[in-house]
Amino acid sequence: MQMKKILTLFLATSFIFQSCENKTEKKTTEIPTEITTENKTEEELAIIERNGKSFYDWYFKNEFPNIDVIKDKNGKCKLDTLSYFKELRKLGTISEKFINKEKERTHVCSEFISTINYTEYEEADAYEYDEYCIDFYYYNWLKSQEHPEGFSAENIRKINSNQSSLDIYETYNNGGGNESPLSTVFLEKEHGIWKIVEIKFVNREETKPEKVKIYGKKWYGGIVSLNISETTLAYEYHGQCVYFYPVKKISDTEFEMIWARNMDCKFDNGTDKTFGLKHFPEIGKPFAKYTLKNNILYTEYYYKEWVEKYTEQVQEDVFIQKYFSQNENN
């Protein structure tokens, strides 16, 4: 009987001791869970920093590249945005939102430079194309003509589950490690990856082409140049041949060209031909509308079929789709 009591007491004591051990183990397993959550936050901020500064890592490593100008199959210039966007996509951290904004930013320069012969571009003076392609002459992503020795990423922020940002500072080691704020990089999560969607500059003026006016300026395109006043449009083939057309002003950025046959020219440009068409230009009636947008003068012809026939049978590059102004000092 005594042995049964001893055995029962031993088993009860063992059960209580084991229960206490289990409770102790449960308590100790809760601590690593808190550490893991903290580690995940730090790890995500590290990823945001790495991805957010990846563009400037590439930019500095490749010595501040601008988009190259290459020669196309027709001997004209071409802005090589294809290679540029390919390089950005290879980083794996650049959003298509960013690339679409870059397409928009470079569109005017791309349109303009495509009208220039490549040999002419190679021989051009400094700043000859700055009215449309200012990026040729300075570092766009530094907004400067000089570059710093390095950069740093600071103020890494996770704004919410889908947005984050960080600040880029230029560093100058020779100046005692001085830093200057450059830009803020904004990121968004795409398919689980933090990607750059925008770069905004801090205390730096965006260098944009000065807005030009239609009237009182010379415009170039094809084989003619246009001298436009508020009453007259002069088609200049060269110094010894000019055709004059009345202008109907619509606004400061838009006008209509009225058809005429007034000229000061030693040759006939063939604009009196009808090409057997029922719909052809008539003296005193609107022939085309010109609209200024992003410093490019676009043309909408009211007699499209006649323009096509004239281009095919008489002379190319007279009636074209767009014209560009040129700096007066060039």
Please give a structural write-up.
- The protein has about 325 residues and is α+β, with helices and mostly antiparallel strands.
- It has six helices and 15 strands.
- The chain has helices at about 1-50, 55-60, 80-90, 95-115, 120, 305-315, and strands spanning about 70, 75-80, 150-160, 165-170, 180-190, 195-200, 215-220, 225-230, 230-240, 240-250, 255-260, 260-265, 285-295, 295-300, 320-325.
- It starts with a helix and ends in a 5-residue tail after the last strand.
Break the fold down into its secondary structure elements and pairings.
Blueprint: H1 2-52, H2 54-61, E1 69-71, E2 77-79, H3 81-91, H4 96-113, H5 118-122, E3 150-158, E4 163-172, E5 178-190, E6 193-201, E7 217-221, E8 224-228, E9 232-238, E10 241-251, E11 254-258, E12 262-265, E13 286-293, E14 296-301, H6 304-313, E15 322-325
Antiparallel strand pairs: 1-2, 3-4, 4-5, 5-6, 7-8, 7-15, 8-9, 9-10, 10-11, 10-12, 11-13, 13-14, 14-15
Helix pairs in contact: 3-4
